[in-house]
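request received
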Amino acid sequence: MAAKVQVTRPTKIELARLKRRYRLATRIQKIVKDRLSILIMEFLETVKECAIVKERQVAEFNEAYRALSMTSGYLGSEKLEKDLFAVEMPLKMVGKTRNVAGVRIPLFEVERDETVALKTAVRPGMTAVEEDTITAARRCLESIIELAELENSLDLLGSEINKVKRINNALEYIVIPGLNATIRYLNMKFEERDREENARLKYVKLLIEKREAYAY
Amino acid sequence: MPIDDDPSTRDRGLEGAVTEDFRILNTQAPRRKKSLAALLREPHPSVPCYDGNDHHFRKDELERLAAILGEDEREELLLPLLIEISGEARELKVRTKTGVEAKVLESLLRMPVDRRKGEIFLSRAQLPVIRRLLKTSTQYLFLV
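response:
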């Protein structure tokens, strides 16, 4: 795409202003490119982490379902339902944020309430298989929270990458070539003006010389 | 809604978007840093940022850092560590006064780091490793 020349007034002040804008745009583009590479790196790292957590989550769900079916077979579904209904999940989730290169990303932290955990652990009448089921379910819940954080991060990072890419492309293909073309055009214009001025001066000089020659 | 197709208006719009983006690049920078020891004492460790929000730390990350350092060094290590990125230079920089930052990074990278005149120079390949281990304890700082 040919760069567009945009000149309001072909003056030296305008040229100086354009040169300043060109320098600024080039520097900003370098920073924007850096930010883009950082965001892409963060995105890829999050993707990797997300895959690991998903794999772990599948394993944990398998384990939890196996434990649940074992407990169900051992105690009977009615007793199991009654026991699990009374179980308090000793989890407390704190939602916070962190900032990655200008993107606010959620940060979920699971805090274990030890007093509730103790209450759950020492409940009378609870069998070992039931405790195993509860522990497996708790692990599943933790991995769900972790995955939610990662997937939300991916979403936010992805949309920011798109935004930064658009800015980078605008700078690279529209703003900088446009400024460059305008600066070139103004330089040519000034050179042309100088040449015209030289020719005019030579002509005036010739006229003066002729007039002086006639005077004598 | 009428569409303004004037090139100068579009140019102004682009310029505005770029300036805005440029301005918000470093708003995540902390208004003040806190020592590792102080953060470990807080129930929800965080530092205030220039954008008015708080940047929170993961407790397990702080505990990992505490395991690397001694009692005195925990007071000296100020968090978050700022990784400076400049468009001109290919290397990344972390400023250090006492050298505790170098000790932490060397321990995490399992290799000596390039330290010159109060600055630690990191290569781009080392960045993902550091960020993976210290997600909340490090932040980027974009320099013009």
